[in-house]
């Protein structure tokens, strides 16, 4: 097979996926270890911090199937992925500005609803890309 017709995905797609995953895990790697400390510095009580952390975990379980259903229904998982990523990035600064429990609860809901759906959608798109281009799986 000539080099221009190899069965591997284009390099630019591999680079785009690598940059995307790097950014995705960078956000998680910075946010998750320090977020409870930020909440404590903001003056939240231990029970309130626990509630926000629990909400984040529950949203990971609840939002994923709903957003995946929407992505399948729309037939455009990349658009849903981009919408979720942009929404998560747009909400993230609200953690800086919100200083009380209720605004932080709203920001937590909005951010983790969007952010928790990004990873599974990205994996689906990555595997579809690889399987279509390389006959993987």
UniProtKB/TrEMBL annotation:
Residues 15-133 form the Major facilitator superfamily associated domain. GO terms for cellular component: plasma membrane. Keywords: Cell inner membrane, Cell membrane, Membrane, Transmembrane, Transmembrane helix, Transport. Its main location: membrane. GO terms for molecular function: lactose binding; lactose:proton symporter activity. The chain crosses the membrane at residues 18-37, 49-68, 80-98, 104-122. InterPro entries: MFS_assoc_dom, MFS_trans_sf. The keyword Transcription does not apply. The keyword Repeat does not apply. It is found in: Cell inner membrane. PANTHER family: 3-PHENYLPROPIONIC ACID TRANSPORTER-RELATED, BLL5896 PROTEIN. This is Major facilitator superfamily associated domain-containing protein.
